[in-house]
Structure formats: C-alpha cells, structure tokens
Amino acid sequence: MARRIKVETNKLEDFVTDVLQKHGMTATDALVTAEVMVSADKRGIESHGVARLKRYVDGIKSGIIRLDAKIETIVETPVTLLVDGGGHMGQVVAFRTMKRCIEKARKNFVCLATVRNSNHYGIAGYYTQMALDEGMIGISLTNSAPLVVPTFARDAVIGTNPISFGVPAGMEMDFLLDMATSTVPRGKLEVAARKGEDIPETWATDEAGHPTTDAKRVLDNLAVRAGGGLLPVGGVGMLHGGHKGYGLGVLVDILSGVLSDGAVGLDVYGKKGQPAEVAHFLGVINPDGFAGEDAIRKKMDYYAKMLKRSALANGEERVFVAGEKEYENAEANDQYLTIQDKVFEILNGIGNEFNIILEEVE
Amino acid sequence: MARRIKVETNKLEDFVTDVLQKHGMTATDALVTAEVMVSADKRGIESHGVARLKRYVDGIKSGIIRLDAKIETIVETPVTLLVDGGGHMGQVVAFRTMKRCIEKARKNFVCLATVRNSNHYGIAGYYTQMALDEGMIGISLTNSAPLVVPTFARDAVIGTNPISFGVPAGMEMDFLLDMATSTVPRGKLEVAARKGEDIPETWATDEAGHPTTDAKRVLDNLAVRAGGGLLPVGGVGMLHGGHKGYGLGVLVDILSGVLSDGAVGLDVYGKKGQPAEVAHFLGVINPDGFAGEDAIRKKMDYYAKMLKRSALANGEERVFVAGEKEYENAEANDQYLTIQDKVFEILNGIGNEFNIILEEVE
Question: Of the candidates A31, A126, A50, which has an alpha carbon nearest to the alpha carbon of residue A326?
Fold first, then answer.
C-alpha cells in the first residue's frame, strides 16, 4: 500500500540541487531549480514538485532541455524584455528574467517580459512570489502542453495555461493567485483513474467532444491524441461559462507565445525530441507608480478582511483569499515534508548513479 | 407583445449625444459617452447599451454622477497613471485616461493606469478597442456593484468585475476578450425570471448560499441583500473551479480599487445617493517593446486559424476566437440596429422633455 515518506525539507532541496549539478547544471542554476521545485511541494502542489525531477533529468539527457544554451535578450526597453531561452531549463530562464524585471520595475515602475523557447518552469506562483518578496506586484503566465479543448472543439489545442498574480498585503497574507485556466490539471484525472472514481462532467470530454465521467478514457485518448481532453474552467459549451476559461487560456498563450513570436497552441511540445518551446509572460508592477506600497498593503488588508469575514454559506467553515492555503502549507512544511513512497524511490533511483542519497526521517 | 424597433445607428448615437448635452455634458464628453453606449448595442451587448441611458440621466440628476467634477491626476510616471475621477461619468473618465495611456505607451512602450472615484463605464471592451485601433494591446478591467458571492460565502461581496484584453491580428479579426468573472451577468437572470424559466445551478445561489434554479428568488434576495447572489465562473464551491472565478474577480477588484487606493467589494456603490466610487484598471502595451507589430499580427493570424480550424465536437458548428461574434454583430448593425420597444419608449420619454425624438425606421 502507498504510504508517505517524511524527509527534511532542506535535505530534499540539497538532494535535488546535487542531482542537477551532477547532470551538468551550474551550482547557481541547480539551486534555483531545486528551490522552485521544493517550494511547490511545500505549498502542497505536488504535481509540480520533486515528482518532476525524473522528467527534467530525462529532458536534460535527451537534449530537450539544453543546459549549454545561451539565454539571449532579443528586445530590451526600460520597461520591457523579450528573451529567447534557447531551450534552457524553464526555471533558470524564468528566474533570471524575473530578476531583471524586478530591477527594471524598481527603477522604472513597470516591467513586462515575454520569453520564448523555454521549458516547463514549475509553479507559476514562484516567480510572482519573487516580486512579492520585494514589496511589488508580480505576474507570471505560461503556456504548456496542449491538453485543453477549445469551446465547441473536439481536440485538445491549448495548454492548462496558468495565471498567477501576487499583490502584497500588510498584516494579512499576500494575495497570491495561481490557477490553471482549465477546470482541473491533468493530475486530478490521474488520481481519479487510479482510484477508479467518476469525475464531474465539468472536467473533461471524450473522443466525440462530449463531457465524460471516465477519467481513464480521457487520459488514454490524450496519450494518443484520439480526441477530447481537459475542459476550460466553466466546463463544456457556453451555458456555464466555459468560453470564458477558453478565452483566458488563449489570452495566456497570446501574452506568452504571440508577444514573443514564440510557440503557441499545438506547437508547444510540438516536435518530438526537440526543445518544448514553452513561452512565458512575466511582469512586475512597482506600487510607487500608483498609490504607493503603504497604501496598497493597507487597502489589501482591509479587503482581505472584508472577504474573510463574509457570512458563510450553510455548511461551510471558512472563506479563503487566494494563496492562504498554500502559505499555511508552506509554513507547516518548512522543516519537514512528506512525499509519496513511489516518488521517494524514484528520487533515490536517480541519485544512486552518483551516490547521492535522500534519507527518510523516522 | 414585446417587439423590436429598428432605428438608424447614427441617429441613435445623435439622440443619446443630444440628451446628454441637455443634461449638462459638454459636446465632446456627450459624444464619447454616446459612442461607448451605442457600440455596446452594435456588438449585441444590450445590457450595457442605450438601455442604460435612463440610469445615467437619473445619476446625473441625483448627483451620483458629477459632471462638474475635476478629473485629477494623483500619480504620474512615464509608464503609470493614478487618476481620481471625482465622481464624473465613467465613460468620460475612462476614455480620457485610456487616451493618455495610448500616448504614453506609444512613447514609452507600456502604460498601466488605475482610476478611482469613477462611475459605471459601459463595456470594458470599448477601451481595449481604442488600443487596438492604434495597433497596440489593450487592457480594461473594472470593479462594479457587489452581486457575486465568494467561494464558501453566503452573501454577495464582489462585482461581476469584467476582464477585457485586446490583441491586434492581421487578416484575422483582432482578439478581443470581454468577460464578466461571474458565470453570467445579472441580466441573464432577469430574462429567465421574466420567462419563468429555470436557471442552471452554476449561475447563482439562494439565501442559504446553495445553488438554486430560481432566478426570481435570487433577484429578490439581491434587491434586499437577503443573502445569495451570482456565482463566480466555475460555479459553487471548488469542485468545478468556482474558486478560480472568485480569485479572478478579486484580482480585478485589487488592480482597480486597491492599486488606486479606491473602493473595493462592498464599498463600490456602498453609499446611497453618493458617487458609486467605481474603480478601473486600464493598460496599453506597445508591440515594439516585444516582437513588434508585424510579427505579432502575423502570429495572431496563425494562432486564430489554428483555433478556428480545430476539429469540431460532435453536433457543433464552429469554434470561435474571443471577439469574433461581437465584430460580426457590429458589422451587421453598422447602419441600422434594433432595440426593445420598451427601451425605445423610455428613450423617447427622456428626449420628450427637450423635444428630442428618436424615430423608428419602417
């Protein structure tokens, strides 16, 4: 039976850093990438955490991720950047671009950056958090592998294309939205398929383009692109607002892949064995260009309290503000966290080659 | 029985302009406001069209809309603006701010503007269209009267807070997303209540905070704030992604009302007989800061074609790109459009005082 393995959070990060270095990454880049990954586990977003290490390592080995790539600045103005990642590690490309964006916004009030030819960059919210740590507003969007079906269409054309925005608060927790524009990510279907449970009709469509409760069927269809896929938030058709989720997914693709003249839709992960050509959109807004940091933090506190003090629907226990759950998770997982035994084994399998060991804490 | 009245589109705009001037608006401001309103009818968004004239005129008379207000610039940098509308007409405040933003973005590549103390500004998409007309990317968000219930809450706290983004294409129609962050706007419930039809459970909640199919009950509850209201896109709870629509609605409130240190949530339309304190967020992005106008238009064409040529779900006829339907409507309504007989009568009732007549076309 599956069980969860407790590990030291710091040691997990060290382990991932070591493994990435052994695979040719510089110490600095490895540390950044490990931190992005472990921060996902800490927040409770396991799908984007260390469970992905194997895929990244395989990507490095097969040349999909190119650690020797030069990350090039194609266009630069005081408030914009267009960066070509050259197929480098997504976390490295996005981290460096966000760093520069933060500096620019500090000086010039705003910075918007598009990035093309990158790879999977982990959780979108990591980069918005970088802006929050500097007392500024962060934006992070990315396109991704085509798994989502446009409204009225049969086949998956766009990614789960997440939207992340962060706005600093004062005494309250910062606002940190980080959401896929599909109803759910693929991982939720994998869990349902494993357990043999039905999924709601708002999650996915079958090969005819109709809602289905059969998660395994959707995953099998997606694997061979037989039709169907994940639904945009709002579900099938227009009656429940599915065209809105679809429109937002396309918007993310445009800001990432069109503004950078990079890849969009089916072209993301479009060439087998080649770089995935993932595109990102990153942004930083300096509060000094508007009402100022103090006023904004204070108003955020006021608004967060207004939301959290709402009367509850019968049977409910709490109204959340975006990011609260993840911050609470991160705090709880600061010293130790648990990972699936299967992931623990895979990690040690990867480390084994270089005598790097991840230890279970009793 | 209700019927539709055909009018000349230009004459409808002249009529509205005249009426607004008679109520004390300058010729320039009246023309802008009329154009925003009629553009909504042309696009098929009647809820935001000339049907609102009575409400605007009443607002001017009662002092909620203050035509003598000074629209003040509180903060200005090369790429940002914070504007205080002083309670002036929303369309006038937003139009002038967007104009300035376009100039700034032309020169400095990006402009982001927040506006506080404004009023209802009509369709969000009008202002993104202004940027599109200049070959640039437009952003337009606004908060609005609290009608939407946060996830797990019982009462309406946030507005239908729309998101509009426009991105220029080449041969294809421009991308123009303009969507409320609720599943549907209040108008859809009014239609259902009038017809005595059930609404889907994804649209609204009752006074206990549970989904209901009874539109009249929701509207009655909202009128006296007895609990319940519209649902964020994704519906009730988290199972279908309702927390995403909620998060996006809050984001719009933050970018509009928090960044400007203006009103948010329950404070919008919070004081009876006083200015509504609506807040907006407007933005313009110059393609020259990224891949350039030609490359972006070309890639947009490529992407729009990819989406529109998707295989169709069984039983469906067409895959749309955001904005297509509205552009097609606007073209069809360029010379003539039809309005509800009830609206036609109300308009002539307003005009009657000043001998301004809107004529029906046979």
Answer: A126
